[in-house]
UniProtKB/TrEMBL annotation:
Any single GO BP term: proteolysis
Family: Belongs to the peptidase S8 family.
Domain Inhibitor I9 intervals: 3-43
Name of this protein: Subtilisin-like protease SBT4.4
Gene3D superfamilies named in the record: 2.60.40.2310, 3.50.30.30, Peptidase S8 propeptide/proteinase inhibitor I9, Peptidase S8/S53 domain
One of the record's GO molecular function terms: serine-type endopeptidase activity
Length: 670
């Protein structure tokens, strides 16, 4: 077996190799080695969404600079023929670009997609088979495409956050996920190629930073002035540790997913004139006639139990009884079974929070609505129905954080609030690979240019696009300044819109227009990250190798009253003991990026049980880039899981808001 798999030298020094346990231990003991860890596999985690955020097509832009912005998308490739990646109206490749178009078979770059590389050995090109990379790239930086839709559903102008920006695609993911070795290669090249923003819609488990290729790659990107935006994860429906976001490093911009004011529904029209509203993206046009309804328990073979029959489990359906009818199943994800049995359509019981593309006429209904249909069917001699083509409806209470969106707190660094923000990630129209089934069922042979999808994989590129927009307005801003601008201008969300409060939506829902003029920013310098990791127990040699800085010295911190809560982060968080009095002091410094002469006054919002004091309560700024420091003293006693407060610095033109989260450990939980 070949020992050396790959080496990384363009942006950092590392290699991947096949090692025995003995070789791994020997290598790990070497003074020049930061860490040796097993390769892990990470998983991949537009017409209305930008308008919903107030980021309209006529928003003020800086066209020349935006055209110079390069968004690196690390994913499973890209479909270059998509209209979203047309270079119509886009000039020559930026002179700063140092990358290449190594797209492989049947792949051509243009002035939109200017770079392409792939690292998956079983693939012959950067072309995206699953559609995931194409979706993400089009949301972040897709060109304008009028009348885009999924068979007329969600029709409008599709566009990314920075339509004039360039895209560099790095294919690090294959059919079975995204291997660490490939992700490191992608980061290595993206940094050296000169991208400005990295969009990374993937994640895995919670890992120590020195063993986490995403954290390591993003750290090296940060050192080169590149912000990495990362999907927070789709495991929020779980419990305990499994529901927590793995995107925890403070230099990562971690993104949750929430709804927009457009929801897609599929109605079921019953023969008695009643109409029931369900979920699903059903593109199939209804027949003029209605179809007989049949419940799974009345369409079963004799080999299945009653429960199995009601659920329409595999092998339980008698195709002779089902063919040409609408099947009712008391379970979800039974479209394959319905199709195999020859059903016209299917009504499934599913408590879904979002609509997914269906492979045949289908609607997902709540248990209550399923019972309504069952009652109709039992009490009607010829019970019939039809499943209507999906339509868009207005949701007035948006945004709401999706239940699937992974949440905090940060299990690795409790003082750093995660996720950072939320953005549209539910029922998003985006460009797609025509090679892949839009419903992901093998028997669905439709080929589409655009599809409708949900996940933090979709919210992540919204933030990447917004970050690229802010970068285009302020080309010299650091990654932490861009991140701060998007966090402190985010729209606050009420606790009712996310039961886990800031641990579900972070600082709030992004507002790209306001982020371009935040007034003040919290800049985090590299030295603070060094302090953080020293505090967390990393040794000086490890820190020096990780950061590539021989001057770093953890021993100097022994005489400093510094802790992770003092990291100059736009949010403040602290873990305290339940029902015990506490006092926590946060130190922060802001930089003036608003008016040359301005005075900001502190405005505190705090619940009963928390006392928040800011010193000083007024910041007088006389020039651009002037820095002012302050402390926030929080005291009280917490009897519940989370208490949330906020600090706003207000000068009459800007509201610079930071959430303050005091929380306790859940009893008997992670």
């Amino acid at each position: 077996m070949k020992s050396l798999v790959r080496s990384y030298t363009r942006s950092f020094n590392a290699f991947a190799a096949n090692l025995t346990d003995r070789e791994q231990k020997k290598l790990a003991s070497h003074d020049d080695v930061v860490s040796v860890f097993a390769s892990t596999t990470f998983q991949r985690q537009t017409t209305r969404s930008w308008d919903f955020m107030g980021f309209h097509q006529n928003v003020r832009r800086n066209p020349a600079v935006e055209s110079n912005i390069i968004v690196g998308v690390i994913d499973d490739g890209i479909w270059p023929e998509s209209e979203s990646f047309s270079d119509r109206g886009i000039g020559p490749v930026p002179k700063k670009w140092k990358g290449a178009c190594n797209g492989g078979e049947d792949f051509t770059c243009n002035n939109k997609i200017i770079g392409a590389r792939w690292y998956t050995p079983l693939d012959a090109s950067v072309k995206d088979g699953s559609g995931h990379g194409t979706i993400c790239a089009s949301i972040a930086a897709g060109n304008y495409v009028e009348n885009a839709s999924f068979y007329g559903i969600a029709q409008g102008t599709a566009r990314g956050g920075v339509p004039a920006a360039r895209i560099a695609a790095y294919k690090a993911c294959g059919a079975f996920g995204c291997e660490s070795v490939n992700l490191l290669s992608a980061f290595n090249d993206a940094i050296a190629d000169g991208v400005d923003i990295i969009s990374l819609s993937l994640g895995g488990g919670i890992l120590d930073i020195k063993d986490d290729v995403v954290a390591i790659g993003a750290l090296h990107a940060m050192q080169k002035g590149i912000l990495t935006v990362n999907a927070g994860g789709n495991s929020g429906h779980g419990s305990g540790r499994k529901s927590r976001t793995a995107s925890v490093a403070p230099w990562l911009f971690s993104v949750a997913a929430s709804t927009t004011d457009r929801r897609i529904v599929t109605k079921v029209a019953l023969g008695n004139g009643a109409t029931i509203i369900g979920k699903g993206v059903n593109s199939f046009k209804p027949d003029s006639k209605k179809f007989t309804l049949i419940h799974g328990e009345n369409a079963t073979s004799s080999t299945c139990t009653e429960k199995e029959a009601k659920s329409c489990e595999d092998g339980c359906l008698n195709s002779r009884l089902v063919k040409g009818k609408i099947l009712i199943c008391e379970d979800a994800h039974r479209q394959r079974e319905a199709m195999d049995a020859g059903a016209y359509g299917i009504i499934e019981m599913a408590d879904d929070e979002f609509s997914s593309v269906t492979a045949l006429p289908a609607s997902d209904l709540s248990p209550e609505n399923i019972r309504e249909i069952q009652d109709y069917a039992k009490n009607t001699k010829m019970a019939v129905a039809n499943i209507l083509t999906s339509e868009s409806t207005k949701q007035s209470d948006a945004p709401i954080v999706a239940r699937f969106s992974s949440r905090g707190p940060n299990l690795l660094i409790p003082e750093i609030m995660k996720p950072d923000v939320t953005a549209p990630g539910v029922e998003i129209l985006a460009a797609y690979s025509p090679k892949e089934s839009p419903s992901n069922y093998h028997f669905d042979h439709r080929s589409v240019k655009y599809t409708i999808v949900s996940g933090t994989s979709m919210s992540c590129p919204h933030v990447a696009g917004a970050a690229a927009y802010v970068k285009s307005m302020h080309p010299n801003w650091s990654p932490s300044a861009i991140k701060s601008a998007l966090m402190t201008t985010a729209i606050p969300m009420a606790s009712a819109k996310g039961k886990h409060t800031e641990f579900s939506y972070g600082a709030g829902h992004i507002n790209p227009v306001k982020a371009a003029n935040p007034g003040l920013v919290y800049e985090t310098i590299e030295e603070e990250y060094v302090k953080l990791l020293c505090y967390k127990g990393y040794s000086t040699p490890t820190i020096r190798k990780l950061f590539g800085n021989k001057r770093s010295n953890c021993s100097r911190l022994k005489h400093h009253k510094w802790s992770p809560k003092d990291l100059n982060y736009p949010a403040m968080a602290s873990l305290v003991r339940r029902n015990e009095s506490f006092t926590v002091i946060f130190s922060r410094t802001v930089t003036n990026v608003g008016g040359a002469i301005s005075t900001y006054r502190a405005n505190i919002s705090a619940p009963s049980g928390l006392k928040v004091i800011v010193q000083p309560q007024e910041l007088s700024l006389k020039k651009w880039n002037e820095k002012k420091s302050f402390i926030v003293k929080v005291g009280g006693k917490v009897a519940i899981r989370v208490l949330s407060a906020s600090l706003e610095w207000i000068d009459g033109n800007h509201n610079v808001r930071s959430p303050i989260v005091i929380y306790t450990k859940s009893p008997n939980k992670s």
